[in-house]
Design goal:
about 130 residues, mainly alpha
């Protein structure tokens, strides 16, 4: 990340945008790209990196940056993860983790302008 920021300083703003695209295109690791998208405030790309990630870790890592801008997309991603986890759950630890995720979903849902029950209906249908 330091090298990225040092490189950024070397270019005028318009030239930097071209250079960073070259860097983004060469990245194969979604997590590396997500960190750079965050630092460049490219939240639409960050959201896509989070949605493309198969794990809960990436979603949790960027939730605070994205929840105000993309609450519905985050809720949908959480729902997909919860459904997957619930389909293969076998112990209390996993159930506790699912409950924790559902609570997170409820908090995100409350911030939306729509009804507060969006994730509650999903939880009942599990």
């Amino acid at each position: 990340m330091d090298i990225f920021n040092e490189l950024k300083i070397l270019y005028p703003e318009e030239e930097w945008k071209k250079q960073r695209e070259i860097i983004f295109n060469k990245l194969s690791n979604n997590e590396q790209a997500a960190r750079l998208y965050e630092s460049e405030r490219l939240y639409d790309r960050l959201l896509q990196a989070v949605l493309d990630s198969p794990d809960l870790y990436t979603l949790r890592a960027y939730e605070n940056k994205l929840k105000k801008l993309y609450p519905q997309e985050l809720l949908s991603k959480y729902e997909a993860i919860v459904r997957d986890m619930a389909s293969r759950t076998s112990d209390r630890k996993r159930y506790r983790e699912i409950v924790s995720i559902l609570r997170t979903m409820k908090k995100i849902s409350r911030r939306r302008t729509k009804s507060r029950g969006d994730c509650e209906g999903m939880a009942i249908s599990l």
